[in-house]
């Protein structure tokens, strides 16, 4: 038996179809929102955050679809997420070209006004002619369509901008969807494990390798309560995962947490994994919940 949870790599056909169909639908909706926002919001600097939102929301949707479809192969889910991400990029480019080809400019100079509208015909034509789309993209790269500090990006710089956009969208889709496939799953009961973050913080693991070795050896006494001296003291966070009806599906995750204050006085936390999805016994699970499940002085509702 492995010390850590190992995904079964099972990919139910129904789950795969749900992931692909639902993912493409989510990609289509998000592509429309993204391109219309980029088109109508006049601040080019915000485009990065719009793109980041596109990638993260698409990734979140794929995560939920992977969970609903009970997809347990990280590599398989990652590959499917990559396909959906590419579909999202293809859809957003099809829509952008649709708006661009259907745009009309009236007036000149500062009085010029550009308007556009969606055309189902142009959109369908762009979708079904990838060669023509690629030619149009190359033409846009040669001339540019937007300005930054009075300059119109073209050529290599514009390719780099588009490459960053591609990486953000694909990366968000891939990383978030794949993370779900690595979560503990009970093959006995055919369900994902519940996750619980214990309320009582754990003492910071100064020697990560030593703490990991102790936990792998079943020495859970290595975990001690965190006794805070200040709000900025580093600590560790303990998470438990289990399926109650499957004794073999009980795991723990331990993360080191380091609070930081930026130059604006805002407190943030950085985390580093000490162990992730380490197998434990049901007795160990209950012991940890008893020791660290509540804060000192807290009472449990009965």
Automatic annotation (TrEMBL):
This is DUF4199 domain-containing protein. It comes from Hymenobacter ruricola. Keywords: Membrane, Transmembrane, Transmembrane helix. The chain crosses the membrane at residues 12-37, 43-65, 77-96, 156-177.
């Amino acid at each position: 038996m492995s010390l850590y949870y190992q995904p079964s790599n099972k990919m139910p056909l129904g789950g795969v179809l749900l992931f692909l169909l639902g993912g493409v639908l989510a990609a289509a909706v998000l592509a429309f929102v993204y391109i219309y926002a980029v088109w109508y919001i006049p601040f080019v600097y915000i485009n990065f955050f719009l793109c980041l939102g596109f990638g993260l929301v698409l990734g979140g949707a794929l995560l939920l679809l992977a969970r609903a479809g009970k997809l347990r192969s990280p590599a398989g889910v990652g590959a499917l997420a990559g396909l959906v991400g590419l579909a999202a990029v293809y859809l957003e480019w099809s829509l952008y070209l649709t708006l661009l080809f259907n745009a009309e400019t009236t007036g000149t100079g500062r009085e010029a006004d550009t308007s556009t509208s969606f055309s189902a015909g142009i959109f369908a034509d762009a979708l079904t002619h990838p060669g023509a789309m690629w030619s149009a993209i190359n033409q846009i790269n040669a001339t540019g369509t937007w300005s930054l500090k009075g300059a119109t990006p073209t050529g290599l710089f514009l390719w780099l901008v588009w490459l960053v956009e591609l990486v953000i969208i694909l990366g968000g889709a891939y990383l978030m969807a794949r993370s779900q496939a690595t979560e503990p799953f009970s093959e006995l009961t055919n369900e994902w494990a519940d996750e619980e973050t214990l309320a009582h913080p754990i003492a910071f693991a100064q020697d990560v390798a030593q703490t990991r070795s102790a936990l792998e050896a079943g020495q859970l006494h290595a975990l001690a309560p965190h006794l805070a001296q200040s709000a900025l003291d580093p600590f560790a966070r303990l998470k438990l995962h289990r399926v109650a009806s499957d004794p073999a599906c009980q795991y723990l995750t331990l993360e080191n947490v380091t609070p930081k204050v930026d130059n604006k006085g805002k407190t943030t936390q950085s985390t580093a994994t000490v162990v992730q999805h380490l197998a434990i016994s049901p007795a160990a699970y209950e012991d940890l919940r008893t020791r660290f499940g509540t804060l000192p002085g807290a009472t449990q509702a009965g």
